[in-house]
Specification:
two-stranded antiparallel sheet, four-stranded antiparallel beta sheet, 143 residues, 3 helices, 6 strands, alpha+beta
């Protein structure tokens, strides 16, 4: 927390831990889609003057630490990212014959928590969660 961002009349550091899932918790975030989606999220966040500090796409959910200026509501920025990324995915990976209005890729809602002084702990959690899930799955094989 040693670096502050600034707008024309304020200095700020507002970081949030955000988790959201695909509709029906489908395990659809694999392979090429997984690599492509990270860049899409970063570009969309930049359009709202936000920055994704840390992120990881699991097969069934997305976790990110995002820095959002205080002039934007967290729910609006996350809603924008989810909505525009769903439209992008429908255009790139979906059927091009259909209209994209009303298609839903992400489930409604998300988990949001402010980061505060636990920034390093949350960064490590996001980075290592996939390894931890694999370890727990391996332990479950012995039961």
């Amino acid at each position: 927390m040693d670096k502050f961002d600034s707008l024309s009349h304020s200095a700020w550091t507002c970081k949030h831990h955000v988790v959201f899932i695909p509709k029906c918790r489908r395990r659809t975030l694999y392979g090429q889609l997984r690599q492509h989606l990270g860049e899409v999220f970063r570009k969309l966040a930049a359009q709202k003057e936000s920055r994704i500090e840390e992120g990881h796409l699991m097969p069934d959910h997305v976790q990110m630490m995002i820095s959002i200026p205080p002039k934007h509501a967290v729910s609006q920025v996350i809603g924008f990212i989810k909505g525009k990324s769903a439209i992008h995915l429908a255009r790139v990976y979906g059927e091009r014959k259909r209209s994209f209005v009303g298609q839903h890729f992400w489930a409604r809602g998300c988990f949001v928590s402010t980061v505060g002084r636990d920034e390093q702990l949350i960064r490590e959690y996001i980075r290592n969660q996939e390894k931890e899930d694999e370890r727990l799955d391996q332990l479950g094989l012995w039961r």
